Amino acid sequence: MHQLLVSAPACRERIWHRLTYGLLTTKAVAMSGAMAVAIAMLLQVFWVSAAHAQSSGHPNMIFILADDQGFGDVGALNPESKIPTPNIDRIAAEGMIFGDAHTSSSVCTPTRYSILTGRYHWRTRLQKGVLGGFSPPLIDREQLTIAGMLKQQGYRTGAVGKWHLGWNWPLKGGGLADDAGNFTDAYEKGWAVDYEAEIQGGPVDLGFDEFFGISASLDMPPYVYVRDRVPTEKATVEKAFHRKGPAGESFEAVDVLPTFTREAVRFIDSHANGDKPFFLYFPLNAPHTPIVPTKQWRGKSGINDYGDFTMQVDATVGEVLEALDRNKITEETLIIFTTDNGCSPAAKIGQLEAAGHDQNYIYRGHKADIYDGGHRVPFIVRWPGKVKPGSRTEHLVGQLDFFATAAEISGADVPGDAAGDSVSFLKTLLGKAGSPPRRSIVSQSIGGQFAIRDGDWKLCLCPGSGGWSQPRPGRDDMSSLPPMQLYDLGSDPGESRNLIEQHPERVAKMTAMMREAIDRGRTTPGETLDNDVDIVMVKPVRNGKRPLKK
């Protein structure tokens, strides 16, 4: 009966009515009035405790991942921000800001892999760049994901949004699509896909009970929504949201963020008062290209379309918060807002800066770079009753640490071969940590170049940005630069002074740390694990001919 009472409010009301009515009328005839009232009171206490059974157990968890939104694009993190973000700021005011939080990569596919697996992406075949819209799965079906782990702990799991981790598109003539990350080939390969057949190796094969979203970035075909395993419509026409390719006739880029928002709210409404806690992974398509704010938001920032789209992202966060409030589960829900890498040059950084807006705050570089502007990101957590409102920590954390943290919260026993790079930050979150959960973390640029932290020290195992900013590999003449870069972020958070010549012993120590991280197949205690491929620690960097700017 307890299970029935918890399962749904309407069901509880019906059972309560029948039990109390029966006891206080037909059965109560044979009882004293005092006994009938006592039993009724007992039933009421039982009903109330059942109604709140979920709140006394594991919290709901929501992980919102914006796409290409910089550290400085959040008002709570950048006092001089010119783009209003009141809803993200609300999470910060009611929760904790992590000021030294990092993605595993400065581009999107690898970041997503590390979040969902608790394992560095560079242990896989993906040594640089990102997947395409027709790429095969990066996550093996046998690999435990955070969704699979939470599902084992009794959670209802859902994903809404941009997947971009590959899955198996079936072809009309048999076989599977594989664009091998070649976006040019994706056009022809896309027309050979059978859009009525079931996809394999996607979210619902990796621990998620349900999924609604798109295959990859919104500027990569195919342009169709997928629900669980099957597109919601066939790709029968050609469209181009930067890259041309197969599309559903009704699919329009401007509608994607509002559609994802409705689906996320529907998921919350559907499971808010169920008999299980829920986990919602909500990776947005925005403010990544194509930068397409809806009519309601165009011009709102007074800067450019990127500013408008970022405000629309904040509004999406607001709708999620409103759904929690409306369903009266705010107190029972842990929510995280973060982004997959720094702001992209596609945001027209020059226009933003001319308006006085520093999209990546005080940090050097942007999306794709090894510098902190590429991978230091907003990471804000609210958990009412557990996390002190308006708090902030400078403890070093990675997004891949959410796996171990969720496992500790839910009481999961993670197998020794899973989440080998994830460290729980729960004590920091609860204000009970005497020291940071980690002192070291590895980051990677789009070109595959590594950086490693040791406290405030950061070693970049390459010259230049490793990405798109100056000094840019393959474009700028870096022949006169040292082969590596060493920065003291404590005194130089903008990475302006390379100290490699002054501290050779530290360079040797941190290079050895990186070597060990690779060779052990993990960075947490436990038996050595295998990487999927051989990993080159110091990758060659193409030298260009353009003189460096002074």
Brief digest:
Strand 8 (235-241) and strand 9 form a beta hairpin. This protein has 14 helices and 18 strands.
Give me some keywords for this one.
550 residues; alpha/beta; Alkaline Phosphatase, subunit A; ten-stranded mixed β-sheet; four-stranded antiparallel β-sheet; 18 strands; globular; disordered N terminus
Largest sheet: 10 strands, mixed
Tally the beta strands. Answer: 18
CATH superfamily of the largest domain: Alkaline Phosphatase, subunit A
Which runs of at least 5 residues are low in confidence (pLDDT < 50)?
A: 1-56
Q: Which architecture of the largest domain per CATH?
A: 3-Layer(aba) Sandwich
The radius of gyration computed from the alpha-carbon positions, rounded to a whole number of angstroms, is: 25 Å
The side-by-side strand order for the widest beta sheet comes to 7-6-5-4-10-1-11-12-2-13
State which percent range the strand residues make up: 5-15%
Please give the share of residues in helix. Answer: 25-40%
Structural domain count: 2
Instruction: Please tell me the overall pLDDT.
Output: 90
First and last CA, distance: 75 Å
- Which fold does the CATH topology of the largest domain refer to? Alkaline Phosphatase, subunit A
Structural class: alpha/beta
Question: Given the C-alpha coordinates, what overall shape results?
Answer: globular
CATH class of the largest domain: Alpha Beta
Number of helices: 14
Draw up the topology in text:
Elements: H1 2-7, H2 9-24, H3 33-51, E1 60-66, H4 86-93, E2 96-98, E3 101-102, H5 108-117, H6 146-152, E4 156-162, H7 185-191, E5 210-214, E6 226-227, E7 230-231, E8 235-241, E9 243-248, H8 256-271, E10 278-283, H9 305-326, E11 333-339, H10 349-354, H11 372-375, E12 379-382, E13 391-393, E14 397-398, H12 402-410, H13 426-429, E15 442-444, E16 450-454, E17 457-460, E18 485-488, H14 504-519
Parallel strand pairs: 1-10, 1-11, 2-13, 3-14, 4-5, 4-10
Antiparallel strand pairs: 2-12, 5-6, 6-7, 8-9, 11-12, 15-16, 16-17, 17-18
Helix pairs in contact: 2-3, 8-9
